[in-house]
Amino acid sequence: MVGVSDGQSSAQAPAAARTPVGRPLLSLALASMMDEVHAHSGAVYLLARDQPVLEMAVMAGLPRAFAAPWERVGLSSPIPVADAARERELVWVGGEEEMARRYPRIAVVLPYPFALAAIPVATESTVYGAVFVTWPGGHPQELSDREREHLTAACGRLAVRLERAAEHSVPPHPETDLVASPLVGGMAGTLGTVEAARMVSRLPYGLVSLDLHGRIGFVNAAAAELLHVPVSRLLGTQLWASVPWLNDPVYEDRYRAALMSQHTASFVALRPPGEWLSFRLYPSTTGLSVRITRSRAVSEMNRAAPPPDGTPTRLVTMSQVLDLASALTEAVGVQDVVQLVADEIAPAVGSQALVVLGSRANRLRVLGHRGYPDAHVVERFDGMPLTEPTPGTQVLRTGVPAFFESQEQLERLYPARLVTPDGFAAWAYLPLIAQGRPVGTCVLSYADPHPFPTEERAVMTSLAGLIAQALERALLYDAKHRLAHGLQEALLPHSLPSLPGIEAAARYVPATQGMDIGGDFYDLVRTQGMAAAVIGDVQGHNVTAAGLMGQVRTAVRAYTTVGQAPEEVMRSTNRLLLDLGADLFASCLYLRLDPAHGRAVMSRAGHPPPLLRRPDGRVRVLDLAGGPLLGIDASAVYPTTEVALAPGSLLVLYTDGLVESPGTDFEEALAGLGRRLADAGDRPLDELADSLVHPEPQRTDGEERLDDIALLLLRAVG
Predict the structure, then answer these.
(1) What is the mean pLDDT of the chain?
(2) Which of 23, 26, 60 is nearest to 43 (CA)?
(3) In this predicted structure, what is the pLDDT of residue 193?
(4) Residue among 523, 629, 639 at smallest CA distance from 574
(5) Partners of 505 in the beta sheet?
(6) Closest of 705, 607, 695 to residue 662, by C-alpha
(7) Which of 219, 402, 526, 545 is the most exposed place for a label (fewest CB within 10 A)?
(8) Cβ–Cβ contacts within 10 Å for residue 646, how many?
(9) pLDDT tens across 249-278, in order?
(10) Once rounded to an integer, what is the mean pLDDT over residues 602-609?
(11) ∠ CA 35-41-45 to the nearest 5 degrees?
(12) Which of 191, 219, 395 is nearest to 290 (CA)?
């Protein structure tokens, strides 16, 4: 309960700031908000004081179990309430399909037809949290202006009240969720009159009344007979808990689907040893009415019965695992995994910090950490032999999780921790096991002593398995990434030579698909009194293309060194490519530079034309004569073109990734490149090169680059 007083009489206080003493602030605000827009359920989240985490403060309309995976969420999490609080704007999701498209992790856990609005609770200066409300599946696809105005205004009023409470140092106290009234046992108490209860009890089919928590408030004799469970053992219990053969998440899911969508749901279940029963669920905002009959479609059923002695499965745990598994599929590299664990899993289990450990050469490796004020406390464990007696090495070696509820418990088993305090009071050490072998350890740390009940340990162990799979993929990706970059760096020039009369700059930008490695190449070669430059593109974005690119670049350099003319260099390289028997082709542009005489001689093999910026700033595309791609025709010839290269002239050589992209016209893109070159061509070459490969506005994070980019700039100087 929260009592807020602003020091004014109620008549003087602004309406938005009045909250009577002793009344539940959040619950009343949420209930009023839902009533105004006829919402079905909702919840209020408050921003934690000391970390970027939203915590569910109160929920209404449905049991909190429905939103269990999101009771604590990081502010950066891709879910509607976090987006609303972070962006300070209303988020609207109009239905099941839109939820699956925009928030797939929620759709995996709640694949039901419902609409949702998330609204920030914020003043002009401070964000206090967010609210979400939901409607059944029949709500229109668009949020009406009236609903939008009501929700925004109500959250604004709530923010002002929270601001006033904060000014008076009155934090919101815990409040009770607004679900349904407690059960009243007995048939007559539930149905209103004894005669009505007698009438229902005489019906030939089973009737059961469930509240929003799934607990049985009424059951008639026919239902008890069909279920083979006495009425006395059913009342007040959850249906799937009291009837062992209904203890299957699929059946509980139908109950959740009916309540979320407010649509009738049904399922068929096998009552041992061999009779099928049909269950039809009729929802309302206060619970469910269930009709049970014998199924007529027995011959059509081919579903194995749930094991009668199986371990009870809780859908809440399944929901958490599904949500977090969906999040971990988004991780690419190791640091992505660490960040997702920090943003999603740590808040869900109440942890304030984490470390992800791995091993290499029998030594401990700190792969990443979050939440530690002093990074040195964690990083000093990096490189420690796995034989050292620490909980991290022990869990990594044995694959057995370890939970320490207090500092005393940890130090009793590992006295060495006395000299390496990290400032936390409880820890969960989770082994990360993938493909039957340990790949690391996830350490979750808690600021206060923390008990780890059996159910929580089971959930955390399940999550560790998901983290392990993501970490194994990420380790493999990072290894391939390092290999690709190492190979690319080895095949391209480490630096460009200094040449008299020529300034040069080059850039290589890999595609965002594949292994970040491709067949684009460039080179600048010193020759007697002159220089040679080459740029080319072997088709493909893989190791084969990169290997062939290295051979082509080496061949061009060799033919240049022995003094071949430009057309001969191209013909020799073409024959080499054919002799290698490669299935790949290559485009190439080769030129011999003679800055002393102000000229360049060029030969082209299917490559995009270079651009020339003259000293006066005008830019033109050099329409060079040329031949086909290298590696196609052994008899191909590659004629040359001579171009004047006065001091101050700038040649721009590039591969097609710079100007080609899906949906873009090549000629328009080339014209755009020419305009950028005309405007910025006087800048230093390194600045100009960066601006050409990364033009403004910057490419968005979600946009992929389908091809590599190689760029070589050559400026004649007097």
Answers:
(1) 82
(2) 60
(3) 55
(4) 629
(5) 713
(6) 705
(7) 526
(8) 13
(9) 778 778 888 888 888 888 888 888 888 898
(10) 92
(11) 100
(12) 219
